[in-house]
Amino acid sequence: MRERVDTLWRLTPVVVALALMWLVTAVNLLALRGAWLVDGVRAHDPSGLWPNLIWAPFLHVGLAHLVANSVPFLLLGGMIALRSPSAFIAVSLAGAVGGALVAWILGAPGSVHVGASGLVFAYFGWIIARAVRERSALAIVLGLATLFVYGGVLWGLSPFQLGISWQGHLGGLLGGVILARVWPVQSQATRRSQSLVSPQLSNIGR
After folding, report:
1. Superfamily (CATH H level) for 2-203
2. How far apart are the C-alpha atoms of 86 and 26, rounded to whole Å?
3. What is the pTM of this model?
4. Cα 158 to Cα 99: distance, rounded to the nearest angstrom
5. Residues 42-45: contacts with CB within 8 Å, 24+ apart?
6. What is the tens place of the pLDDT at every residue in 86-141?
7. Domain coordinates of the chain in residue numbers?
């Protein structure tokens, strides 16, 4: 019972963020007819970066766009949050900032960038980079599983695809990888002692 409560608590920020995405998109599309979409990241516009980078991940152009981002957001974000809710929040912020900055700098003049795909790429980059850096069994398994299931998302970095923000994807990926490189890594001795003191932690993510 205690393990289940702990797992639910760790997933809370993921579920809350996903619920906000659906709520914001529903209000914007159904009640406001897309009026909020202009509040996405507007490339090269001095007023289009801040605070737009905060709202942009919650805005989506339609149901298909929202669903396409929701599934990997929940799965990849959930994998990070189950290990560390604070890491999930940090990676989300890194993905939002990195994706917005690159989209703002490299995006076509007048383009508006919205959606949570930059966060998804940040989660992808974090999980793969942490597998390489931590070299723990759990991190490696998660990294391989992520690469196997979602390795195809790297095609989203291609500038030849129309209708996607490859700039936001690139920035999100870089944000996740860079943060994974500087985020502290626990020693094997520390991980072992934590497993002995709190065995339920070792089950998280299984």
Report:
1. Rhomboid-like (1.20.1540.10)
2. 28
3. 0.88
4. 15
5. 42/104, 42/110, 42/111, 42/112, 42/113, 43/103, 43/104, 43/105, 43/106, 43/107, 43/108, 43/109, 43/110, 43/111, 43/112, 43/113, 43/167, 44/104, 44/105, 44/107, 44/109, 45/104
6. 999 999 999 999 999 999 999 999 999 999 999 999 999 999 999 999 989 999 99
7. 2-203
